[in-house]
Amino acid sequence: MAGAGVREYKRRIRSVKNTQQITKAMKMVAAAKLRRAQENAEASRPYTEILQDALARLAAVSFDVKHPLLEKRKEVRKVGYVVITADRGLCGGYNTNIIRAANVAIAEDSRKPATGIIAVGRKAR
User: Fold this and answer.
1) pTM for this model (two decimals)
2) Which member of 79, 84, 86, 91 is catalytic?
């Protein structure tokens, strides 16, 4: 009878060790992905700065372009929202927060126009 208890403990210890190995491997993969994402973000910094500079210069210039899509409208009849979420999990509360923010923005729009939503990402659908 006592032998069965020892066997059960050994089996559980093996199971916990296997879980630890899997968790350690997942942690290493996540660290590598995070490092790669940080490197990509750092590599895009010069492009971001150039784009921000170009947009700031464009905003500072006053030019008279008459185009119907650039004119301010008196009455807004339709509004479109683009909601971008992740395709996969492991991103914390990102998806929930984005969807909540979109719902709040739509509810708080005092003009109450017809609203269209474009959902990008598997979690938004």
Assistant:
1) 0.46
2) 91
Task: Give the HSE-up count for residue 23: Cα atoms under 13 Å, Cβ half-sphere.
Answer: 6
Distance, CA of 11 to CA of 40 (rounded, Å): 44
Query: Chain-centre distance of CA 108, in angstroms?
Result: 22
For 83, other C-beta atoms within 10 Å of its C-beta total: 20
DSSP secondary structure, 56-101, as one string: HHHHHS------GGGSPPSS--EEEEEEE--SSS-STTHHHHHHHH
Q: Which two tokens stand for residue 24?
A: 């350690």
91 catalytic? Reply is yes
Please write the tens of the pLDDT for every residue from 83-122.
999 887 778 788 889 999 999 998 988 777 888 899 998 8
